[in-house]
Specification:
Radius of gyration: 21 Å
Helix content: over 70%
Number of helices: 10
Order of helices and strands: HHHHHHHHHH
Shape: elongated
Strand content: under 5%
Mean pLDDT: 95
Low-confidence stretches: none
Largest sheet: none
Length: about 220
Amino acid sequence: MSAEARIERARTIYERAVYSGDVSALADAERDLDAVEADTALARGRLLHARFQTASSPQEDPAQLPLFERAAEAYRALGDTRGEAEALFWIGCLHQFIRRDNETAVPVLERSHLLAAQAGDKPTQSEALRHLGIAAHMAGRLDEARERLEESSRLRREVGNLAGVASNMVGLAYVAAAQDRGSDAVAILDEAHAIAQAHDAHAVVVHIEEARTAVSVSRS
């Protein structure tokens, strides 16, 4: 149910209670509004993340983590496994990407992946796997990193997120270079570039070109 529909239903339930004395659905209306508030908190947190990611001098907004935590708590109370999985992903992403704290991030990302799998939420599964792959790469577990990123890419292809596939391939190219598979790294970046260009993923193209430079240096 959309946020607009939930709010309209709450209004109808209010009128029924006030004018007809029927209070039987008040709890349902409150749950609807809890869901709207969770959706809004998650959406606001994502916007703050986008601001951080695109800023020239990024600074963590102190409101971001509380928004994601509030969403996760609300979804958990509502029994919304899919919503909780997504909110947990963003908590893990914040700890990894913004705070550079994989020790805190990884257990949260693993929980997100588990719940997303239970809910059949492939987009969130793919996001959690991507960031678990990044954590494995940073820890030097290259085979695990490759496996996680490849599985994330498979799920992204299934849901049609090809720009996301190209982004994952940047990570796979770095892994290939670290495993002394330089020619594989170049081929991966060539394919990633073609995909990114075809889907107007201009920010990903920038990362691809940065990776080309890094891979070239590592091969020289």
